[in-house]
Amino acid sequence: MALTSVGRVVPARARSAAGTLALALAWGCAFAQPVAVVTDVQGPAALANAAGAPVAILQSLSAGDRVRLAAGARVALLYYADGAQFDARGPGEIAVETQRPQVSSGAVVQARVAAGASAMRLKPGGLVQGAVVMRNLGLRVVAPDPQVLSTRPDLGWTDSRTGTVYDVAVIDASGARVFEQTTQARATQVSGANALVPGRSYALQVTARIGGEVVQVARAEFRVAPEELQAQARVLAPAADAAVSDRVAYALWLEQNDLRDEARRWWAAAAQSRPEQGSLMERAGAR
Question: Are the C-beta atoms of 206 and 181 separated by less than 8 Å?
Answer without folding.
Answer: no
